Structure formats: structure tokens, C-alpha cells
């Protein structure tokens, strides 16, 4: 009975979700784009049969054809396979970096807003310093200094948007700390950390999640920019920004090498932006 | 107002000082120093020691930092370790290039983006608005350097033209200067125009929903008057803040676009000084980026207060 009941409710929920998607064509398109990109990232072999690493110098810089849908690069590697296999590399770096930002930034922000006082002041100043660098410059600085390794790239991208999560979580915690329910929780003797993690976190989490989606396309673009400057993922690993960089020198001769990874970035960013916009609107209405 | 100014100024200077410390520590964390780079494979310890002493690298970190800070505050940015030129001169030349690029981009982005956003707001719910929104989304989603590359391919196939490879300053030849800057400005401009347009569109739509606007329409004020007197005026205020944000973004975008189009601006200087571990140049270049961003923010804050009397008193 319960299982039948839950099937009915989950069916009703998915119907409601479908109706909502029909009312918001932008959101529906975004979900569709992102679902496709996610599928490519999860099972690249489903789309690209060729290896992204196999070199074939005789076929170097050949234009798009049936054999090579996106053409080949300067050492004859299949650009389609590189873009498809690069999806997981690029997106996992961005997702990881943003997760790092969100975890560290939001935790510090929550604590800062809840504890207030001197710690809040000190953290606030530190955040101001990070914010005083344009994101790309900060990314260049950190990867340039730590060296172009994937882990350093994740660190660099993670630092860039930490302040944004910090500020959102701090503002949320400040707002929530004044609410009656927090006062009530305090009066029945709940400890600070319990209130913070059980009650305030629950209310701040949606803000953080929406921000995660909104920032994702920005991180993607900075990641690609660093790859383009040669500070990101190093060859031969396929990564969208890195493929673009390899194609730069042959841009007039073989524009396809750079064109397609750029389109992949554009498609993914577009899907994320459409979803982010819908989420933000929903949050604003609340 | 004076009290606010003093507080705001003090906070900015404090942040700049902190930033200078961060910059110093970060630059010194670049693996391998200039000495190792200069000596290359020959690792003669006496020569290395002499060079270290020459560059002051043998002194403790804090005294190196204080020395740098003191000289910088007295206007002496030092000499490039790899090129031997005064840093101030190198930086000055580079800043001029980036400044020209940024200002022209802002001008074009504003001229295109603001009217587009206003149009999208007026035609909300009809096809011109949808079309503009598609432009906004695509413009924001496309990576700047990719747009630059595609423009390069586009103009070379369609017009059989490519920009000159060597930079010319506007004083030498304004035509050559503009022809090398045209593509970088357009690539940066598309993104920023899209950002502007989206922002203005949202502001116009939300202004139309304000009660005073609805009241004005309800009591029969001509729509045109409502639009110019009530809607546009209220869109202008947040636009000032947004302009500052855009300028800082352009500064970041310029770094990438400069490396693509071989412009000798701040971005290229930054990248090359990281590569050669040229601390004096790297530190000064980063410092100037931070200071410019800070000054822009400060000006925006003050302008905001001048334009909107409601915030002046808080």
C-alpha cells in the first residue's frame, strides 16, 4: 500500500515537474542541454568510438568529414573524440572547484555571521582582499604560482568564488540569527553549533545551492580561459580550454580545432545559465 | 558624508595594504626564482649567492616586503630583473594599452547594450524582446577568447583581412592602432553588451511593476512620459554600480584577449613576468590591477550617493 501510495505521489510529482517545464520553455531547454552534456560526460564511449589520444600525423589538420566529425588536430587526433572525452575532465574540475568554494566559503560565512564580533571582522577583511582581484587575474596568479597541475587548477578556481559563497552564507546566517525560532532554540538550551547546523544551515542551503548553479558557467569560462593561456590541464589530456589553445596557432588553417570545444563550452554554459535563471526567479518569489 | 568618505577611504587603504602583503607572499611562492632562471643549467653556488645578494633575495622576507612597500609608496617601482628597464615605464606603457582597450569596450558595450536592454524591456513578452534575450544569453555563454578566435576566422574568410601582428600606439598611427584593436574590442564588447542588456532589461521590467509607475499609468500620464520620467530615471541608478562591475570584468577579460591578439598590455606583462619570475614587474602589475579595481569601486560608491539622495544620508 505504501509503495503504491509513494508511486502515485512520485508520479504526481513528476507530472507537476513536467507541467512546470512546459510553462517555462527556457528552463526546459536548459535542462535538456544539461542532461545531454551530463550524458556525454558520464558515458563518452556512447558518442565517440575513437580514442582522444591516438596520434595519426598523416591525417593532421584534416577538415570535418564522416570519419572525423569535428576534423583532426595538428597531430591528427580526432577532435570530436577529444571534445567528447574532454567533457568529463572539464566539468569535473569545475564541479570540484566550485564544491570546494561552496564548502569552505559557506562554512566560514555561516560561522562568521553567527559568531559575529572580531572573527567576523577579520574574515570580512580577508574576503575583501580576495574580492579586490578580478577573478581571471586571481586564477592566473594562483595557477601561475602553483604550476599548471590539475589539482592546482581546482584550488585556484576554488579560491576565486569562495568570497561569494562566504557573503551569501554570512548574510543568510545574520538574517536567520535574528529570527524567533533561533531565539526559541536558544531558550530551550540548544547549543550554538546545533542551532547553526541543524536550523540555520537548513535555511541557508537553498541560497548556496542556487549560487552554485549560477556560478558554474562563470567557473567554466575561467577554467577554459586558464586552459587557453596554457595554465590549465596539460596535453595530451583532453580538456576544452586546452584543445582550444592547441588550435589557436592553426586558427586560420584549421578553425575546427578551436571552434568545436568553444561550442561545447557555450552549450554547457547556456544550459546552466537557463537553469540558474529559473532557480533565481523561484528564490526571489519566495 | 565626510565621515563616510573618511571611513570608506581608510577601509580601502587597509584592504590595499593587505592585498600588497598577499601579492608579495604569493609572488615569492612561485617555484624557482629569477636566479635559477638566469643561471640555467650552470649551478655555480658563488654566482648564485652573488646574484641573490644583488637582488636582495638573501634578506629575510619581512625586510624584503617592507623595503618594497616603502619604495613603492615613495613612487619607486624598481627595475625589471630580466629586462633592466624601469618598472614604472614598462607598467605605464602597458596600462595605456589596456586602458584604451577597456574604455573603448565600455563605450561600445554601453552604446549597444543599454538601448538593447531598454528595447527588450519595452517589448517584454513580444518577439523583439525574445530576440534580444537570445542575444544576451549567447553573448554571456560564449567564452571571450573563443569569440575572438571565431571573429578572426570570420574576417579572414569574408573580407580576406587579418589584423596587423605588431602593435602600433595611437600616437604613431590611429588607423593602424584601431585596426589592431578592432577585433579585441568587438570580442570583449559582445559579452559586456549582453551583460548590460540583460541587466537593463531586468531593471526596466521591474521598474514597470513599481507602484508609482502603475499609479502614473493609471492616472493617465502619457506612457512616453512615464517611461522617461519614472522608469528610465530609476534604471540609471543601479546602472552606475553595474558599470563599475563591467569595468573590472573587462580588466579581467582584457588579460586573455591581449594574449590572443598579441597586445602589449597589462595582461601580457602579467603573464610574461610570471614566466620569468620577474618579481618587481609581477608585484607592480598585480598591485596596479588591485588598485584600479579598488578605485573603480570607490568611484562607483560615491557616484551612487551623488545620484541617489536616498542613500546619501545612511
TrEMBL record, chain B:
Keyword annotations: Cell membrane, Membrane, Transmembrane, Transmembrane helix, Transport
Compartments in which it is found: Cell membrane
GO terms under biological process: transmembrane transport
Source taxon at top rank: Bacteria
Record membrane topology: Multi-pass membrane protein
InterPro entries from the UniProt entry: BPD_transp_1_N (IPR045621), MetI-like (IPR000515), MetI-like_sf (IPR035906)
ABC transmembrane type-1 domain ranges (all copies): 95-300
Pfam families: BPD_transp_1, BPD_transp_1_N
Family as reported in the entry's similarity comment: Belongs to the binding-protein-dependent transport system permease family.
Name of the protein in its database record: ABC transporter permease
Native source organism of the sequence: Limobrevibacterium gyesilva
Amino acid at each position: 500500500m505504501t509503495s503504491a501510495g509513494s508511486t502515485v505521489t512520485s508520479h504526481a510529482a513528476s507530472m507537476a515537474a513536467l507541467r512546470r517545464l512546459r510553462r517555462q520553455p527556457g528552463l526546459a531547454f536548459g535542462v535538456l542541454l544539461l542532461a545531454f552534456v551530463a550524458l556525454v560526460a558520464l558515458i563518452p564511449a556512447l558518442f565517440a568510438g575513437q580514442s582522444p589520444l591516438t596520434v595519426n600525423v598523416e591525417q593532421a589538420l584534416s577538415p570535418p568529414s564522416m570519419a572525423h566529425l569535428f576534423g583532426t588536430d595538428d597531430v591528427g587526433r580526432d577532435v570530436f573524440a577529444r571534445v567528447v572525452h574532454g567533457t568529463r575532465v572539464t566539468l569535473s574540475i569545475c564541479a570540484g572547484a566550485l564544491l570546494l568554494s561552496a564548502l569552505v566559503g559557506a562554512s566560514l560565512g555561516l560561522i562568521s555571521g553567527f559568531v559575529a564580533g572580531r572573527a567576523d571582522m577579520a574574515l570580512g577583511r580577508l574576503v575583501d582582499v580576495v574580492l579586490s582581484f578580478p577573478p581571471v587575474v586571481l586564477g592566473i596568479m594562483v595557477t601561475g604560482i602553483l604550476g599548471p597541475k590539475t589539482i592546482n587548477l581546482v584550488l585556484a578556481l576554488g579560491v576565486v568564488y569562495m568570497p561569494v559563497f562566504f557573503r551569501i552564507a554570512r548574510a543568510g546566517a545574520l538574517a536567520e540569527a535574528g529570527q524567533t525560532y533561533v531565539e526559541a532554540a536558544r531558550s530551550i538550551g540548544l547549543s550554538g553549533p546545533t542551532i547553526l547546523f541543524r536550523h540555520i544551515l537548513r535555511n541557508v542551503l537553498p541560497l548556496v545551492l542556487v549560487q552554485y548553479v549560477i556560478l558554474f558557467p562563470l567557473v567554466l569560462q575561467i577554467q577554459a580561459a586558464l586552459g587557453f593561456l596554457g595554465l590549465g590541464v596539460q596535453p595530451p589530456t583532453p580538456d576544452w580550454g586546452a584543445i582550444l589553445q592547441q588550435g589557436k596557432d592553426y586558427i586560420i588553417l584549421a578553425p575546427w580545432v578551436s571552434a568545436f570545444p568553444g561550442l561545447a563550452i557555450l552549450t554547457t554554459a547556456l544550459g546552466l545559465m537557463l537553469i540558474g535563471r529559473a532557480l533565481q526567479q523561484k528564490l526571489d518569489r519566495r | 558624508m565626510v565621515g563616510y568618505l573618511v571611513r570608506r577611504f581608510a577601509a580601502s587603504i587597509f584592504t590595499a595594504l593587505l592585498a600588497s602583503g598577499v601579492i608579495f607572499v604569493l609572488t615569492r611562492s612561485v617555484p624557482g626564482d629569477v636566479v635559477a632562471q638566469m643561471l640555467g643549467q650552470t649551478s655555480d653556488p658563488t654566482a648564485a649567492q652573488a646574484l641573490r645578494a644583488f637582488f636582495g633575495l638573501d634578506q629575510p622576507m619581512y625586510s624584503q616586503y617592507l623595503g618594497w612597500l616603502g619604495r613603492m609608496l615613495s613612487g619607486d617601482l624598481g627595475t625589471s630583473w630580466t629586462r633592466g628597464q624601469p618598472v614604472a615605464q614598462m607598467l605605464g606603457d602597458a596600462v595605456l594599452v589596456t586602458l584604451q582597450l577597456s574604455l573603448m569596450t565600455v563605450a561600445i558595450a554601453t552604446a549597444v547594450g543599454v538601448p538593447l536592454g531598454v528595447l527588450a524591456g519595452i517589448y517584454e513578452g513580444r518577439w523583439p524582446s525574445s530576440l534580444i534575450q537570445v542575444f544576451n544569453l549567447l553573448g554571456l555563454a560564449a567564452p571571450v577568447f573563443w569569440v575572438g578566435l571565431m571573429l578572426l576566422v570570420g574576417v579572414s574568410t569574408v573580407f580576406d583581412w587579418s589584423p596587423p601582428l605588431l602593435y602600433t600606439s595611437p600616437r604613431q598611427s590611429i588607423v593602424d592602432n584601431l585596426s589592431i584593436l578592432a577585433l579585441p574590442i568587438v570580442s570583449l564588447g559582445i559579452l559586456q553588451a549582453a551583460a548590460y542588456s540583460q541587466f537593463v532589461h531586468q531593471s526596466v521590467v521591474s521598474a514597470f511593476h513599481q507602484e508609482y509607475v502603475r499609479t502614473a499609468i493609471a492616472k493617465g500620464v502619457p506612457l512616453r512620459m512615464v517611461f522617461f520620467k519614472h522608469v528610465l530615471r530609476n534604471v540609471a541608478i543601479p546602472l552606475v554600480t553595474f558599470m563599475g562591475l563591467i569595468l573590472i570584468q573587462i580588466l579581467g577579460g582584457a588579460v586573455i584577449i591581449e594574449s590572443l591578439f598579441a597586445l602589449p598590455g597589462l595582461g601580457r606583462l602579467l603573464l610574461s613576468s610570471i614566466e620569468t619570475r620577474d618579481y618587481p614587474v609581477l608585484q607592480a602589475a598585480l598591485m596596479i590591477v588591485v588598485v584600479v579595481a579598488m578605485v573603480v569601486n570607490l568611484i562607483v560608491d560615491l557616484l551612487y550617493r551623488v545620484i541617489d539622495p536616498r542613500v546619501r544620508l545612511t
